[in-house]
Amino acid sequence: MVFWVNQALLSTTLMLAAFSMWRMGPAFKRSKFAGPVALIGLAGLLFLPEQPLYFESDYHRCEVISFCNNDGRESYLKVVFSSLFTISSAYIGCYAIIRGSRIYSERNLPMLATGWFLLSVSWWSIFQSTWFAEAYSRLDVLAWMVCFLFGTAATVYLFFVIIRYTEKNTPRDPPIQPLDENERRLVTEMVRRNMVGGK
Amino acid sequence: MVSFEFSFAGIGSLGAMMLIALVFFSYFFAIHLIVTWNPYHRPVIPLISSLILSLGPMLAMAMETDGSSSISQMLEVAFLFTTLGLGVIVLWMPIILAVVTFQMIIVSRKSPSEDPLMEMLDN
């Protein structure tokens, strides 16, 4: 058992779980656990333990699997760090652009400019990475990417069929009651918060 | 010994990438159904399907060499599948970012539209 590999897997799982938790529920009442779970996952990804030493029981395992040694770990960390930097700057930049534009309220030029600056930083980090240039100049890597897309589409279709089968072949629930006054107010509040920026 | 040469029944690495996508998204879907458990979504059949689709290939690959498997081998294969899946998603990042940037250009130039729903809320 290689410890850093297991920690990386657990942390990735926690990040995926946090993402799912964050996207569930009404827009103004997301799961309270999503943030802490994401932080634990992120910390686990960034602070990976080193390769086992020669006197540890896992040491010989690293001789037979290619990604276990310190080189593999450093390559993994490099990709994680650069991806996180690109994604976080793009995410904050987009958020600032949306808040600074005239969609929800009056235009806020400093906010808009900050957003575009952060989005440019994200592009800059991509152009700094030799990884993308190398990958995009290789035909086999481009073919992998396209095949991954086909695999993704096939998976989505497969789950669509499975969910449709489940919906058709399980007992139907009785028709629900119309919204009462409290629920109607809740839906109105939800729409208001989504469409006028929480005002 | 775990070997990570991807060649499944002569399909080669292109078929392997499709399999990685299948395993990765099935794994993600299984996690999603578990952490957001809601009986009204009827999650049992989708959850069992996603667990079979994600754990089946992992188990097959862990058993590929000597016909036996251990938890540690399973975890290593799971790490490999999730890392490769995320790696290919990261490879798509410049294209995704180009689409997002285009959307942000539209958002920056957009002005709020007259909306009857907003009027209804105000009244």
Layout: helices, strands, pairs:
The complex is a heterodimer of chains A (199) and B (123).
Chain A: H1 3-22, H2 34-46, H3 61-64, H4 70-100, H5 109-128, H6 130-136, H7 139-169, H8 181-195
Helix pairs in contact in A: 1-2, 4-5
Chain B: H1 12-35, H2 44-62, H3 71-91, H4 93-109, H5 116-122
Which key phrases capture this entry?
heterodimer; A: 199 residues; mainly alpha; 71% helix; 0% strand; extended; B: 123 residues; 72% helix; elongated; disordered N terminus
Task: Describe the structure in your own words.
The complex is a heterodimer of chains A (199) and B (123). Chain A is mainly alpha-helical and 199 residues long. Helices cover 71% and strands 0% of the residues of chain A. Chain A contains eight helices and no strands. Chain A has helices spanning 3-22, 34-46, 61-64, 70-100, 109-128, 130-136, 139-169, 181-195. Chain B has 123 residues and is an all-alpha fold. In chain B, 72% of the residues lie in helices and 0% in strands. Chain B contains five helices and no strands. Chain B has helices spanning 12-35, 44-62, 71-91, 93-109, 116-122. Chain B is elongated, with a radius of gyration of 21 Å. The N and C termini of chain B lie far apart (70 Å). Residues 1-11 of chain B have low confidence and may be disordered. At the A-B interface, helix 1, helix 4, helix 5, helix 6 and helix 7 of A face helix 1, helix 2, helix 3, helix 4 and helix 5 of B.
The chain-level mean pLDDT of chain B equals 80
The chain-level structural class of chain A is mainly alpha
Oligomer: heterodimer
Overall shape of chain B:
elongated
Q: How far is it from the N-terminal to the C-terminal residue of chain B, by CA?
A: 70 Å
Q: Report strand % of chain A.
A: under 5%
Number of strands of chain B: 0
How many helices of chain A? Answer: 8
Question: Strand portion of chain B, in percent?
Answer: under 5%
Stretches of chain A where pLDDT is under 50 for at least 5 consecutive residues are none
Number of strands of chain A: 0
Helices and strands of chain A, in order, run as HHHHHHHH
